[in-house]
Specification:
The chain has 298 residues and is an alpha/beta fold. It is built from 11 helices and 7 strands. Strands 3-2-1-4-5-6-7 form a 7-stranded parallel beta sheet, with helices on both faces. α5 links the parallel β2 and β3. The protein is globular, with a radius of gyration of 20 Å. The relative contact order is 0.13. Nicotinamide-adenine-dinucleotide binds next to α4, α7 and α9. It comes from Piloderma croceum (strain F 1598).
Length: 298
């Protein structure tokens, strides 16, 4: 590509050098996912379901929600009805699959892509957080279980969608859900190490996801497939609720650890998801986007 071709991409340049073209805003068109197809793991509830909804609102025709239960939750059913009511032709489909089963996931995502004739967006949001254990005594089986879902399962999900993007020779966006815990360690209070944030398996798995995205981004960049991570801070869902509901003092502790003084809401990730999934982020790959209320800023 020549320097002139690059320059001609600028809308300012196009409209000022061709008086026949009148300026008009294009920014929201760049965020449109009109007619695209997505797959989101862990989308029976929580952040995954909120992200699937965001893809539908941005115009995806079908978003496949992959999760463990045979039948979707009431929350998923209600979200599905809301999406139908949008009237933009978008809909959610539920698919029962375990992200740890590589071949089954590849097969299921291939069936989705064959039915739709494309696969454009993948969000790997399935994840688990187990009870804390002192790192020096962390049980082997539990460490493997967390790595299996949070690291291997994320890779298998990204592979499943990426293979279809390549097969259909289309550019695509793969978004891996990491965590701020991949970059920092949630503060352990020295007095209550065993009941607090001794999450060595979770933190390790999320760090793996950050490097997985960079590594995949480098291999898939030449094929037009972007791979990025989204790293949320503390957000109230069933995953964090398992801790907050049993230890209410954690709400104040977690809130006080970012400059905004509160936890985030699942809907506060929608904007970043819409941006990363769309053409508005077409030169963004291998990046980690932190949405943590500034948790890492002090
Ligand atoms: N909630 C937070 O504060 C927070 C912060 C940072 C990162 N995250 C990450 O965001 C993602 C979503 O978390 P959430 O808070 O919505 O949790 P959640 O527990 O509400 O949702 C996780 C979903 O993943 C599914 N899942 C688990 N194992 C699976 C498997 N083997 N196969 C398929 N699906 C499986 C679960 O059934 C569940 O529906 C996770 O990767 C989590 O680590 C969450």
């Amino acid at each position: 590509m020549s320097a002139t071709q690059l320059k001609s991409k600028s809308r300012y340049y196009v409209t000022t050098t061709n008086p026949a073209l009148s300026p008009r805003p294009k920014i929201f068109e760049e965020f449109s996912l009109d007619g695209r197809v997505g797959v989101v793991s862990g989308a029976n509830r929580g952040l995954g379901l909120e992200m699937a909804l965001a893809l539908c609102e941005a115009g995806c025709k079908t978003v496949y929600c992959v999760d463990l239960p045979k039948l979707p939750s009431a929350e998923w059913e209600a979200t599905g009805r809301f999406v139908k009511g949008l009237g933009n032709g978008s809909h959610l489909e539920y698919v029962c699959a375990d992200v740890r089963d590589q071949q089954n996931l590849w097969d299921k995502v291939e069936q989705m892509a064959d039915k739709e004739g494309r696969m454009d967006v993948c969000i790997a949001a399935a994840g688990v957080l187990k009870a804390p254990h002192d790192c020096l005594n962390y049980p082997a089986e539990e460490f493997r279980e967390v790595m299996d879902v949070n690291a291997s399962g994320v890779l298998f999900t990204a592979q499943a969608a990426g293979r279809q993007m390549v097969k259909f020779k289309r550019p695509g966006s793969i978004i891996l859900i990491a965590s701020m815990s991949g970059s920092i360690t949630n503060r352990v209070s020295s007095l209550s190490r065993d009941i607090d944030h001794a999450w060595v398996s979770y933190n390790t798995s999320k760090s793996a996801v950050l490097q997985m995205a960079r590594s995949m981004a480098c291999e898939l960049g030449p094929l037009g497939i972007c791979v990025n991570t989204l790293s949320p801070g503390y957000i109230y869902t069933k995953l964090t609720g398992a801790f907050l509901d049993k230890q209410p003092h954690l709400l104040d502790k977690w809130s006080s650890m970012n400059p905004m003084g509160r936890l985030g809401r699942p809907d506060e990730l929608r904007g970043v998801i819409a941006w990363l999934a769309s053409d508005a982020s077409s030169f963004c790959t291998g990046s980690d986007i932190l949405v943590s209320g500034g948790h890492l800023s002090w």
